[in-house]
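ok posting inputs for the glutamine job
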Amino acid sequence: MPKYIFIVGGVMSGVGKGAATASIGRILKSKGFAVTAIKIDPYINVDAGTMNPTEHGEVFVTDDGDETDQDIGNYERFLDVDITSVNYMTTGRVYQTVINKERNLEYGGKTVEVVPHVPEEVIRRIKAAQRQAKADFVMIEIGGTVGEYQNVLFLEAARMMRLQQPKDVQVILVSYLPIPSGLGEMKTKPTQYAARTLNSAGIQPDFILCRGEKPLDEPRKRKLSVSCNMREEDVISAPDVASIYEIPINFENEGIGNKILKKFGMRTKSKDLHDWRRLVEGIKKPAKKVKIGIVGKYFSSGDFTLADAYLSVIEALKHAAWFHKAKPVLEWINAEEFEKNPSAVKKLGAYDGILIPGGFGSRGVEGKVNAIRYCREKKIPYLGLCYGMQLAVIEFARNVSGMKRANTTEVDPGSPYPVIHIMPEQEAVVRAKKFGGSMRLGAYPCVLAKATTARRAYAAPEISERHRHRYEVNNAYRERLREAGLVIAGTSPDGLLVEIIELKDHPFFVGTQFHPEFRSRPLRPHPLFREFVRACLK
Ligand code: GLN
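and the output
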């Protein structure tokens, strides 16, 4: 019988439920089980694709073209599996299905009610995800915090599932224990309230993961055990760590994997996190440094959201740096800086390499183009992702091919050289204002040209990568760009879409229409990131 583990949050959000979910999943996987993970987001948006990155963080794209939450990215990275759309649900998505079923008379004339029909749909989705992954364990992370309105129906689904199959369901409360600066001691009361609030939803947690700045001490463990009606060994210390990749090791030191198995009445298996331990040891003892500048624009809400907005890019750079036994030093560079003061691009000379990630709209675009020119001329390794590739084509068109005012029609619809333009099928979508889930999304094959940096990096003639865009290289200018020296290193198999561009006589200058960052894994860095960092280190 497959087993289901719900992860819910207590006290406040942002305490690392996603990392805990992914880490416990990794531990169970290392014990030889098939594991998958589901993210439930309580908001009404049908997917994350319509949300601003400064509001929501990165939009993580799956192989099957779903625009999901960044936690799905953490699951893929920790579990080293490809996750698809069934593993992601939002309130909007669940209601949409229930309403559509009602319209199709699938409830056979019954009154369709919030309870039980909405939680039943949640359970149906959880089981569909289990079947698809043939999983022994399904980790289900419920977004938000216990006690708020938004996620009540998801807690209700957990309660109903446990009632139906008590031997197959566990619930883990990930809570936070603050250390108020005036007191200097860790407080358990908010967590006691959180456990009680969960009780009032009809759920007794099996484990409490106690997040905090410091480890949980014995007296507090005892206190939580008594007040939350738990065995002491099920109250687990989960202090802050320098890198989230350390979490599986810490949890395993607390024996959580075998505790979970024991509660399910399953035989415990010895731990085998060898490869993961080696990774973490490498992270802690780097032999050198690599300094990479990321030129972007999502600066409005400070550093925290900035890192969130480009999460997979950052992780992919880390994986590649660790592969080369280097410590990644990543710095944020505001593209708008190079618009007010173009000569400021000189500071890019202080970096081993520059990366420009995906983006939308006109803000910061001219600054990015200036930065790209500097990287091209000064031979600084450059990796451009999606918009970062399109802007590299624009820079090349303007400054090498002599097409003054070349641009993307996203920014300048009246450009005399629209070297980047909207894809024909996207035009109708945008005109009809059908913005949700309508970009060119998900995995598509790409054929690599011989004797290119990309072909050498991938060491394969054909690859598959994930996309999220509406614009493309305009084929009317392809020949002219090629004649001036732009290398088309990858195209769609029919040759119609430019997927990768490169420059010759440059240590590393690659732009991709797709988002390679979504496929990078800690123990298997992405080939393009790996080669980019290799060039940076040189
Ligand atoms: N704005 C560009 C497009 O829609 C690039 C998108 C991206 O970088 N993800 O094609």
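notes: The mean pLDDT is 94. Residues 407 and 413 are 8 Å apart (CA to CA).
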